[in-house]
């Protein structure tokens, strides 16, 4: 903001002080040449030429004289004397003829600068550019008979020194005012930008501590609002991932409880009853130990589950036989504690899915049923297959 203000102030000083005289002089020359172009177009209607020239002279504050040259004899056509101390109205006729000859030699136009010499009390030709000059622009146009018509325009360049001094005071006031306003505006903008950023930073620190319910307020500043929305979304995603992690750990712990119960039950059975120390019971313990190993391996894939990239290991197998085999493993354990566990299926069904995961889910359901069954201690696992109007459904 300070740099922008400085550039604006510098531009004002350059245009209003340093280059003011040059700009004013160039504008005056441009106006004079524009008058010449208009006078050239008016020569096609000589009757209205003088009235048009008089109007231009009054409007633009210039003096205009026009001469017709016939056989090197100059005859005045009209004269528009608007300004005081006009250069061209103080010229001798011989000087006017000299201007005609030089303009003709220069391609039909001639631009000269004059300054007033107060010591000699007359205007003198100069090549230097300065304040208070008079611009004399001459151009030649042919009339209907082929004679030269010389138009001379005198425009006075007003002195700008006094104007510059006045502008100096004005620009000093403007510069001081702009600097003060820019500082105030900078402070206001800085406060409006940094305040929401500070609040967002404080909320981000709370998020880092695990407070996923923290809110982010970006205020009315668009970029800060977008940042707050992004961080709010990040907090929501982190909360979801943390919840998923907690649920995964709880589910895995629950899954581990089932094979541990089976291993403990069969191990106690084999310890208390020598007749139960059979290869079948030992195989059940080994199978449940393998199941625990599978669960531990699944825990190592937590990151995949959190990102939703865990893939099922699908295979085609007879789910009826698989469920029956798992139910059979529970039979000895159930009979010991007086439970009755039955499996009912009206047909054998082939499915394609992840055998390990679906078996684990089944055993969790059976274990929960045994834990919360009624006084009759009877649990029935039933396989049903039906058609819902679109596809086969197995439950």
Q: How would you write the strand order of the largest sheet? A: 2-1-6-5-3-4
- The rough form would be described as rod-shaped
Which fold name corresponds to the CATH topology of the largest domain?
Beta-Lactamase
Q: At the first level of CATH, what is the class of the largest domain?
A: Alpha Beta
- Number of separate strands: 12
Return the string of H and E elements.
HHHEEHEEEEHHHHEHEEHEEE
From the alpha carbons, calculate the radius of gyration and give it in angstroms.
Answer: 53 Å
Taking the alpha carbons of the first and last residues, their distance comes to 72 Å
**Helical residue percent?**
55-70%
The CATH architecture of the largest domain can be named as 2-Layer Sandwich
What fraction strand? 15-25%
Number of domains: 3
Largest sheet: number of strands, sense, barrel closure? 6 strands, antiparallel
Number of helices: 10
What does this 3D model show about the protein?
It is a single chain. This protein is an alpha+beta fold. It has 3 domains: 2-159, Beta-Lactamase (2-Layer Sandwich), CATH 3.30.450; 188-310, Helix Hairpins, CATH 1.10.287; 312-395, 2-Layer Sandwich (Heat Shock Protein 90). It is 58% helix and 19% strand. The chain has helices at residues 2-18, 20-42, 46-60, 93-105, 161-208, 222-272, 279-299, 302-306, 319-336, 355-372, and strands spanning 62-70, 73-80, 109-117, 122-126, 134-142, 148-156, 314-318, 340-345, 350-354, 378-383, 385-387, 392-394. A 6-stranded antiparallel sheet has the order 2-1-6-5-3-4, with helices on both faces. Strand 3 (109-117) and strand 4 form a beta hairpin. It is rod-shaped, with a radius of gyration of 53 Å. The model has no long low-confidence stretch (mean pLDDT 79).
């Amino acid at each position: 903001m300070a740099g922008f203000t400085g550039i604006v102030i510098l531009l004002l000083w350059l245009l209003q002080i340093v280059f003011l005289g040059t700009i004013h002089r160039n504008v005056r020359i441009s106006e004079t040449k524009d008058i010449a172009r208009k006078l050239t177009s008016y020569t096609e209607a000589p009757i209205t030429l003088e009235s048009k020239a008089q109007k231009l002279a009054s409007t633009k504050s210039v003096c205009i004289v026009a001469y017709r040259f016939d056989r090197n004899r100059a005859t005045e056509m009209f004269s528009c004397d608007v300004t005081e101390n006009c250069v061209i109205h103080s010229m001798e006729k011989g000087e006017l003829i000299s201007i005609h000859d030089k303009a003709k030699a220069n391609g039909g136009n001639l631009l000269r600068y004059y300054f007033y010499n107060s010591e000699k009390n007359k205007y003198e030709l100069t090549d230097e550019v300065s304040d208070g000059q008079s611009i004399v622009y001459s151009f030649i146009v042919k009339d209907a008979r082929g004679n030269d018509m010389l138009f001379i325009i005198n425009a006075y360049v007003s002195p700008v020194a006094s104007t510059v001094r006045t502008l100096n005071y004005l620009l000093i006031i403007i510069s001081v005012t702009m600097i003060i306003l820019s500082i105030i505006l900078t402070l206001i903008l800085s406060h409006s930008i940094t305040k929401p950023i500070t609040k967002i930073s404080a909320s981000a620190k709370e998020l880092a501590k695990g407070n996923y319910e923290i809110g982010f307020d970006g205020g009315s500043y668009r970029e800060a609002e977008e940042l707050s929305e992004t961080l709010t979304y990040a907090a929501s995603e982190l909360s979801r991932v943390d919840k998923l992690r907690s649920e995964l750990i709880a589910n895995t712990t629950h899954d581990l409880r089932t094979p541990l119960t089976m291993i403990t039950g069969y191990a106690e059975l084999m310890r208390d009853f020598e007749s139960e120390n059979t290869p079948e019971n030992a195989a059940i313990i080994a199978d449940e130990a393998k199941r625990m190993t599978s669960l531990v391996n699944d825990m190592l894939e937590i990151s995949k589950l959190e990102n939703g990239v865990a893939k099922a290991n699908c295979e085609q197998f007879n789910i009826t036989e698989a469920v029956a085999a798992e139910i059979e493993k529970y039979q000895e354990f159930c009979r010991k504690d007086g439970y009755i566990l039955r499996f009912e299926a009206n047909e054998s069904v082939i499915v394609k899915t992840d055998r390990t995961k679906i078996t684990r889910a089944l055993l969790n359901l059976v274990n929960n049923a045994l834990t919360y069954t009624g006084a009759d201690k009877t649990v029935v696992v039933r396989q049903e297959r039906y058609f819902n109007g679109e596809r086969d459904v197995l439950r």
